[in-house]
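Quick board copy: two proteins, each given as sequence then tokens.
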Amino acid sequence: MVKKLTTFIKNNMDFIIILLVIGLCFIKFDYVIYSPGGKVDLTERIKIDGEYKTAGKLNMAFVTMRDATLPTAIAALIIPNWDMYPNEEVVYSDTTYEETLEIDRLSMKASQDLSTIMAYKKAGKKIDISGYHSNVIFVTEDAQTDIKPLDEIIRINGNEMGEFSDIGDYISLLNPGDKVEIDVLRDGKEKKCSAVIYDVDGASKIGVGILMTYDFKTDPEIKIESKKSESGASGGLMTTLAIYNKLTKEDITKGRDIMGTGTIQKDGTVGEIDGVKYKLLGSKGSDIFLCPKENEAEALRVKKKFKLDIEIKAVGTLDEAIEYLNAN
């Protein structure tokens, strides 16, 4: 038997080597590769009944992310601005890589919901919010609970929960050491969980992070197209601007190609993001790059280092971004 196997290997060595090389090419390492991305023209992705015309473009910047395999890892060692990071640096605590991707996709949905709400309110258009979803995106290490990331909190001690503030307000009334019963939606089914209240700098907490998504109806109706591969909340600012621009008569693009990044908060604040270098390097052909104030220094360094012909404008709020585009 051994002799036959040895003979087979000798006679088929080239074929076996080819199979081994092909196999190695599909093995994933515990690393992720980031590289310069590009831009998504939101004026094409967003459709609103009776929308106003947009002469220019409002683009969402993105980062290209790849699994590290033998070919991509070798490429990262050779190609400038292809960088490898260990999975633990990009994966949320106590979640798998796949769960992290799902949380990032949920973050994009939450960002689009909030962008729509903010833009319609800013433009003075009608939007009726009918439902709230408190999605758990992380559980702290010191939390005493069986709640898991991607659970949706429905009730606490039998009380229906709406927005995240409802959860925070209710928990704040309880004392450290109190145990609460929590009903969650997990994989489409209700499940009973619990948590023990603990103190964090004088405040009562259960140790979970919440991301809100919403059910709503708008007038005029809106549809936002997105790809399955897209995720994250960093397109919040640009999505809000693109929706707002289609709802108002004055075109803030003024025929320009505008690219940007930054999250959007409920109070209109533009939040810091990661990966500015990769997003800015994908801005070829754009006139303006909008970014959060916290990312301004890095953006200016990248512009100078790579001699990019683009105007950098850092903004702290949605109003500031609109005022700047209207005035320039």
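And the next:
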Amino acid sequence: MTRRPGRRRPFARAAFAICLVILLGGLGVVGWAWWTGSIGGLPVRPHCTATALNASTELDPEQAGNAAVIAAVAVRRNLPARAATIGIATAMQESKLYNVSGGDLDSIGLFQQRPSQGWGTAAQVQDPVYATNAFFNRLVKIEGYQDLPITEAAQKVQLSAFPAAYADHEPQARIWASSFSGYSPAALSCVLDAPKGSGDVAPGADGLTPRARALATAAQAETGRGARAVAGSKGSALQFTVAGKEVDRLSWALAQWAVAKADDLDLTAVEVAGKQWRRDSGADGWTASDHPPPAGTVIIRTA
């Protein structure tokens, strides 16, 4: 007897429905992993997240590193967090926090500064530390800049054709500035890929490995802080000592600068104030340190 073809359709529909559910479930897992940036401790999408002032915001590691430089220069100059907010918001609008090599006319760098307009040479304005100092040099000359709306303060420095656009970035810039200035401890964490290349390198004549030396150079240039090698680290870790007023805040400012620079400098761990951030478990954020350093001490480890 010949079967009617329609008799198998309920089974086919059921099989299709099951496959569809599995597919959608898989897509959901992939989407969630992409959104959070990791599956367990495995990075899916490198990113840095700052959570402060009852909100969160995210940047990729390069952007976060550049925002960290802007805030570090502000902290080094003893400028208020508002100055860091203005600087970060301005760079968000001008370059999306990338150190770009081209723009409108001869505009280049984080702030799209123009050598032809007296900002410095092309090489200088593409140095994030120089460019940030140049921006703040003009900002601090504006009377009452701390109390001005961000559009007005930024525009008085930048003379942009689109001055209102700076305000769009103020909420995110305030979160980053609060984190990098140390006012929001344990606020910033990064999920990163594994360090590039091998870190098994003998220390040089100065007692530091090449990566530790690069860290020391960057820290001195951007934060103004010197360091010494951590005993027993074979020159791969540095200890920074923060003294004076606001030790806790300034220690966190340095520590969170380091986390944001971890991708660029191949850093693996940062320890401060009883907390630690580890690159291999970046999705966990800041956790309790097994052997916390003394108050005012920040330990940064390289690969």
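Board note added afterward: The first helix runs from residue 9 to 36.
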